[in-house]
Each structure stands twice: as structure tokens, then as C-alpha cells.
From TrEMBL, chain A:
Complex formation: Component of the endosomal sorting complex required for transport II (ESCRT-II).
PANTHER family per record: EAP30 SUBUNIT OF ELL COMPLEX (PTHR12806), VACUOLAR-SORTING PROTEIN SNF8 (PTHR12806:SF0)
Cited function: Component of the endosomal sorting complex required for transport II (ESCRT-II), which is required for multivesicular body (MVB) formation and sorting of endosomal cargo proteins into MVBs.
Keyword match Transport: yes
A Pfam entry, by short name: EAP30
Organism: Cyprinus carpio carpio
Domain of life per record: Eukaryota
Protein name as annotated: Vacuolar-sorting protein SNF8
Alphabetical keyword list: Protein transport, Transport
InterPro entries (UniProt xref): ESCRT-2_cplx_Snf8, Snf8/Vps36, WH-like_DNA-bd_sf, WH_DNA-bd_sf
Family stated for the protein in its record: Belongs to the SNF8 family.
GO cellular component, one term: ESCRT II complex
TrEMBL record, chain B:
Name the UniProt record assigns to this protein: Vacuolar protein-sorting-associated protein 36
Function: Component of the ESCRT-II complex (endosomal sorting complex required for transport II), which is required for multivesicular body (MVB) formation and sorting of endosomal cargo proteins into MVBs.
Molecular function, one GO term: ubiquitin binding
A Pfam family per the record: Vps36_ESCRT-II
Keywords, in A-Z order: Coiled coil, Cytoplasm, Endosome, Protein transport, Transport
Entry's Gene Ontology BP terms: protein transport to vacuole involved in ubiquitin-dependent protein catabolic process via the multivesicular body sorting pathway
Annotated coiled-coil segments of the chain: 133-160
Amino acid sequence: MHRRGVGAGAIAKKKLAEVKYKERGTVLAEDQIAQMSKQLETFKTNLEEFASKHKQEIRKNSQFRVQFQEMCATIGVDPLASGKGFWSEMLGVGDFYYELGVQIIEVCLALKHRNGGLITLDELHHHVLKGRGKFAQDVSQDDLVRAIKKLKAMGNGFGMIPVGGSYLVQSVPAELNMDHTVVLQLAEDHLLKEGLAWLDSQAAGEPQYWLPALFSELLSRDITPEEASQMTP
Amino acid sequence: MLLIRAKLDVGVVLLSTHRLLWRDQKNHECCICIPLSQVIFFEEQAAGIGKSAKIVIYLHPVPENKEPGPYQQSKYSFIKLSFKEHGQIEFYRRLTEEMTQKRWENTPVSQPIPTGVGPKAARTRAVGIVGIERKLEEKRKETDKNISEAFEDLSKLMEKAKEMVEVSKSIANKIKDKQGDITEDETIRFKSYLLSMGIANPVTRETHGSGTQYHIQLARQLGDILQAPLEERGGMMALTEVYCLVNRARGMELLSPEDLVNACKMFESLKLPLRLRVFDSGVMVVQLQSHSEEEMIASALDNVSDKGSLTAEEFAKLLGLSVLLSKERLLLAEKVGHLCRDDSVEGLRFYPNLF
């Protein structure tokens, strides 16, 4: 770490720079940082005030959460970037989404052997709600989507594939190409290898591909105790 | 207010484009329905302590030709759906959609529901409807007021946040153009301000890395916490596993995924015995530094030679690793030429490389 130059030459140089910039009307970066520190304190107070009035609203009202997230995105702020951020600390939004992230990972791990790491958003929603229990706060599918988007920071594992108005959530790094012929694309050999699709060569007519992720039978099956033991690392 | 619910206690509520149905969970024969055209208005009632979330549905008065149901008449003009096990948010959303689209109007109704036949019915209707409409208006005003107040406050807050974003952009540009003399201290402070506000760090990342004091502290904590779990798992854990482990242990003030990644990136510069590693597939793991690459590759070759051939699943069972990580090891060994693959629709199998 170096101290700002203290010799006479350095002082003279700095004075020259200051004069030059003041002439142009621009403020020096270090002055702005000092200014920002004060503005930050003020903002923190405003946020605290907002939190005291509306923290419950955010917690209970999923529509309000959506609006809040969208407004943040518009101005270039990510309230979920860090648990140490003001938004997270004061509004409690962080813990809500980060915990949801944990629950999503655990459900996907538990069900991976059944569906190869591909699960519909509906089914994921169903299992997450069940896992949260009766007294926990309700979560919407929008909440899940936002939590999953954050999980992407931890590597290629998690992704979402738009399919027919909803999403398929992918929890293993497999490459999937999607276009309007979704099912045909899905049925490539690659998927068979990965265990994501099964080939039924005994079907009448041409061979058929089955996608375990979309088996509605499996949709209603709860996570068994054996599968649950897969959940906790 | 006494809610008549003894007979209709636990069940599943279903929504179609035309009707709202409720089916008893135990006795599937017991199924009742209300046509959506009978719904005037509905609203949410938030959950509270000891209370589950509810949706209250206000209905038109009973038509003359109503089919027999659990109650021929009621003094209440509404029903309440009590969501004991969640689903309320999605259901409310879909109900809103159906009530907006009103698709039942497209299909002709076989039994048209008469509106106000005879003076008696008309009078009942007026009283019922006026009462409901008044309540609607009050509710609307109050909700509007609440929403608009919250929204107004939120907008004001966002305006201030936007100013902060502008200032930070200006600072970042100046750092880039070297306008002014920034010390390392100031850079560190600036980065922590960005972290607090949730503003992405544009310029300084390239030159100074995105780690802040917080991440440095975190990295050291992780170095302690993860030592034992890593050793138990053959020296390597997927980052998603670490995320779950650490956050479950914390219980509150959880780490964001980005916090974890940024902290792990600091392992090397802090000389901690852990490393963050990204495989070709994009999978990110935390690895014990003592866990050398050669060891892993040698062990993979040994095990495969021993058994003749192995798939990732078989290798995982053998070593007590997750399938994901055992696959990465086999791929590593293949990369250096010790193993070769047999790739078929039956799966991916590895053999010792005899070429």
C-alpha cells in the first residue's frame, strides 16, 4: 500500500491536477468516494425507514416482491448479490431467496436418480412447498425462478429451459438444444446416454422416447427416506 | 362469525375455465362445484399466527334453478377457501387469469341462470349486491391506499438508489481514466460501498479483483469450516454442496451464491489450503490443496484397471463420492491419456487406455 505522495514534487503535481480538473468542473474520484460514503449513510437510513414500514409487505406479498425486483433491475441494482448488502440485511430478502436456493438444490439432488437432473418447474414447486412445511411462508414460481438464476453463479450445474410457457429446471451440466421441435431435440442419443430419456423400441409403430422428468406418475410421488438421505451433503 | 366447515374440511380445490371445484381428500365421491360466472369478486386474506392464508370469494345470490348441493341457502354471500398447506399464491394468480378471460362465456351455457325473477328475488338481490359493492369499494380504497403508499415509498427509495448508482458509475469511469489519485484504501472502501448497494463492480474487478474485506474474512472462515467435510469426501466438494452445508449451518444471515464464489476465489491469494476449481464442463468445486491431481488420476486408473472398466455411477459407489465428481475424475484421467471411453446409448464407460 502506498501513501499518496508527500514530497514537494508530488504536492505540486496534485495541486496542478486539482486546478486542471476544477477548471473543467469535474470532481476528483477520491472526493467523490468520500461524498459517496455520506450518501450511503443517508440511504441506509432511508432504507431502514422503508423496512420498518413495508418489510412485512415484501415478505407476504409476492406481487410486491416482483415489483421490487423489477425496479431494482431497472436502476442497475441487484438486491440479492450479497448477503452483506443493505437490501438483504434490512429487508430480509436475502435470507428468503438464499434459503430457497438451498431447498431447490436439495430437491433436485434427491430426485436426480429418478429424472436424470431435469425437472419441471411445477414439480419442483410442489416438492419445495412440501418440504417447507405448513407454517413456512408461501413461495411463488417467480420466487423459484429468481433463486435459480442466482444459483447459476456457482457453475454450470443449474439452468432453466423454457418449454411451453413454463420451464424445465436442469440441475446437471448437460447440453440441451431447444427449438420449436423440442421433443425431437430432446430425444437425441445424448439424452439417452445421460439417462434423461428412455428408448422404447417395443412400442407399436416407430420407437418411442420417454422422458422421466415428464412422467406424471412420478410427479405425485413424495421424496422417499432413501432419497432424502441424498439431500444433505 | 361461525364458519360452517365441519363437513367440508380437508380436500383439494381445482380450477377449470368454467368452474371452481372442491373434492374431499378422503371421500372422492364428495365433489362440489361453483360456476365461475357466479363469482362477483374475490380477494386474498394473508396468513397470520394460527391462521392459514385464505381466498374469500363473493358470489351472486342463489339462482332459482340451482342444483342441489351441500347447502340450499346460506346467510353468507361468500365462501372462504382456507389454504392450510400453501398454494394460495398460485391459485390466486390463476383464478385472476380465469376471471379476466371469462372463457365460460364463449361456450353457451346449457342452463341459463336467471337474474332476478320476481319482486322478492329482486329485493334480496339488491340488498346483497349493494352490501357487497360497498364493501368492495371500501376494500379497494384501502388496498389502493396500502399499495399506493408502499409503492410510493418504494419509488422514492429507488430514486435515491438510482442516484447512488450514478455516482458509482462516475467514480468507476474516473478510476478508469485515472482522474485523480486513488489509494488502495479508497479502492477497498469503494468496493465495499458497491457491495452494500448491490451494484456490480465494473472497472476495478480487472485490476484489483472483486474481493472485499468481507470476502477475505469469509474465505478464512470457510478454510476452517470446510477442512473436515472435504477430508470426509475425498478432498473435493461441488460448490452447490458447499453452499448447502454452510448455509444450513448458519441458519440465518445466509451467504449468497456470489458471496461464496467471491470468497473461494480468494483462497489462493490468502494462502489457504483450499482451491476453487472449475472443470471443463463448467462444474465448480472446492478442493483441498493437499489433494493432488496426480493422486486423483492415479487412483482413477487403479480402480478402473482393477475392475476392468467403470462407469461414473460405479466409481461413485466405490469411492463414496457424488456421481458428478466421480465423473469429473474419470474425465481428468481420460484427458491425460490414462483412460479411454466407450460411449454408447447404454452409458459412458471408461477403460484403461491400452493404445
